[in-house]
Amino acid sequence: MTPATLQLKKDQERRILAGHDWVYSNEIDTGQTPLKPLEPGQPVEVLSKRGRWLGYGYANPRSLIAVRITSRHREHPLTASLFVTRIQHALALRERLYPTPFYRLIHSEGDALPGLIVDRYGDLLVVQITTAGMERERGNLLAALEQVVRPARILLRNDTAVREQEGLEQGTEWVLGEDQGDIELSEDGLRFQVSPAQGQKTGWFFDQADNRRLLHRLAPHGSVLDCCCYLGAWGLQAVATGARSVTCIDSAASALAAVQSNAALNGLQGRISTLQGDAFDALRSLRDDQTRFAMVILDPPAFIKRRRDEAEGQRAYQRLNRLGLEVLEPGGLLLTSSCSFHMGREAFVQTVQQAARRSGRRLQLLFSGSQGPDHPIHPAIPETAYLKTLVLRALD
């Protein structure tokens, strides 16, 4: 299909020339090149006001991000062969970094395939398509994954809410092979049962793997609280690295059952306890009971999913961290994360500091982590650096 032409307004090409891959709807000269008549996901080429060719991409008139750039080489639009090349580049990086095939294989803009997430669990690929443009290329994409990776099974986890913003239906589908239930993965010597078809996201959070390794250096010897624990990745690593006991909090009974199963799988069940409930309510109850921990781990879901939620989300992060600090022993360690890409690292540090001031604590920042290298950051797209993980020492 011949790409439609979209022309930018005067001086709106600077960010694209600097390497960013998103074009917002208010940057397009819709008087000269109307956006609304385009189909969601339709291929386009983007020109500056003076006619300079900037790149190929795909458009969606329903989205604030009206165009996502897919190629800056005029001779290489997004085709089946380009999918193969990009996936080969992504696979080469992961095979260099990881001894076993358990990682994020494709990280959207970080791997020059915007709107695409692929997590690998051995011979199983779990795919999330989040944009209309990538949905339109689904056939080429799946064929390229089969050609390059040779998986036995492919699951589409297109049940993410972000698809609604693109006008796409939600659902899950096995496009290669069939559901064989839970699978087992290993992380730093521990074994975990994971459900790629039914768990959160694609079943596991590979992005925190490097940060979890910090526990080996921190060597928590007292009691640990793992809040928003999901399958217990943080909590079990804490026990394995020396914690006397770990209390895991989650709102989902199924997650806590999985924590106990994973603890038993590793022979650690005697030092793991669980508490079901809302994170804020559970922390208040522990505080009121004067229960204290040598380490508190806070790894909540994103509180800021849209720019307009920023103020409310920042207040939620401050409340959560204040409660975490209030159940922390003097001299204890707070390990806290934010996966909201709308909140920058500096803003997150300031929010945790505000929480400390309100709780009467003085903080020392010891470590500041990001997502692992299987979630590569695009240097020109700050939004791809979404994960912030801080380790702080709290003093009275």
Explain what the structure shows.
The chain is an alpha/beta fold and 396 residues long. The protein has three domains: 4-71, PUA domain (Archaeosine Trna-guanine Transglycosylase, Chain: A, domain 4, Roll); 80-176, RNA methyltransferase domain (HRMD) like (Transcription Regulator spoIIAA, 2-Layer Sandwich); 183-395, Rossmann fold. The protein contains twelve helices and 19 strands. It has helices at residues 14-17, 80-97, 132-136, 138-149, 162-165, 209-212, 214-218, 233-240, 253-265, 279-288, 310-326, 345-359, and strands at residues 4-7, 22-24, 43-47, 53-59, 65-71, 102-107, 116-121, 124-129, 153-158, 171-176, 183-187, 190-194, 223-227, 245-250, 272-276, 293-298, 328-338, 362-369, 388-395. The strands form four sheets. It has a seven-stranded mixed sheet, sandwiched between helices. Strands 1-3-4-5-2 form a five-stranded mixed sheet. The longest helix has 18 residues, at 80-97. It starts with a strand and ends with a strand. 43% of the residues are buried. The mean pLDDT is 96.
Provide the structure class: alpha/beta
Strand order of the largest sheet: 15-14-13-16-17-19-18
Detail the poorly predicted runs: none
Going by CATH, the architecture of the largest domain would be 3-Layer(aba) Sandwich
Q: Report the principal-axis shape.
A: globular
Number of strands: 19
Largest sheet: 7 strands, mixed
Can you tell me the number of structural domains? 3
CATH superfamily of the largest domain, please? Vaccinia Virus protein VP39
Tell me the radius of gyration.
22 Å
Report the CATH topology name of the largest domain.
Rossmann fold
Q: Strand share of the residues?
A: 25-35%
How far do the termini sit from each other? 65 Å
Give the helix proportion (percent range): 25-40%
What is the typical, i.e. mean, pLDDT? 96
Domain RlmI-like PUA: 6-72
GO molecular function: methyltransferase activity; RNA binding
Domain S-adenosylmethionine-dependent methyltransferase: 105-351
Protein name: RlmI/RlmK family 23S rRNA methyltransferase
